[in-house]
Amino acid sequence: MAKTGDGESLGTAEGAVMGRAAHALHAEDPVLDDHWAIHLLGEASRAQVTSPDYLALSIERAGFDASRILAIGVGALRYAEDEVERCVARGVGQYVILGAGFDTFALRRADLVDRLVVFEVDHPDVQALKRSRIEAAAETPASLPRFVPVDFETTTLEAGLSAAGFDPDREAIFSFMNTTPYLTEEAIEATLSEIARLAAPGSRIVLNYGAEVPLSAAQVEYLETLQSNVRASGEPWRSRFRPEAFEALLERVGFVLIEHATEADLFERYFAGRRDGFRPGVPGRLVTAEVAPRG
Length: 295
Hints:
Blueprint lengths: L11 H15 L16 H8 L3 H9 L4 H23 L4 E5 L6 H4 L8 E6 L1 H13 L9 E4 L7 H7 L9 E4 L8 H14 L5 E6 L7 H16 L10 H11 L1 E8 H9 L13 E7 L4
Parallel strand pairs: 1-2, 1-4, 2-3, 4-5
Antiparallel strand pairs: 5-7, 6-7
Helix pairs in contact: 1-2, 4-11
């Protein structure tokens, strides 16, 4: 995971938590009811999100309708949490969130955190800002995660998790959501290889990635605008994968594929029948995979 943003802002991570807060606050039936997101915003961002005109204002600022990419992000987190629920039901007691940013799972899932140790992995500067905002929040969190500060220039994932009390002999569930497009293919493979080595067989990972698939003209135009915006913020996309290549990568590093879902699957699962038109508008793939038996 890389540091994103500077000072009192988290760059694209700040935009993501603003989007989740606005969706929870203004949507009639939130796909992900992230009611804690609003507490992690800076004062200016919170004022923007609480405005009833937030959606129109955000489109005006960005120059395009960001709801289509927000739907991918929100849907991916809901997909991850559904798998976490299934894993907890079968006795898994460790949850590792990679590139956690301003994730709020541990802060709001009072129904699960008494059975689950949540580890959040991210850059130390990102975590310091997040912790300061949790301390200043008006709401008491359901729990706090175990923060795992990892700067990959100086610390390995295995060392960071070990110091935080992660047990490699017990099954775990890992999530790696809304992060891989900002990493190189080499960094993604190295991270997945390390997880496959350190996690107990039967452990699972849920993740999403940018898919290299045929696009409509409208999708090409939308993605070009979106990529221009993230480049301008200093956080360009660095990777896309053909779906068959990503499946081969998972197998190569030691995972067994459980599910490979598309944005159409995401729509049918979480967005069909919505009256507000909120839906994924760009290609994306979601994966559930399991650490293969060793030997």
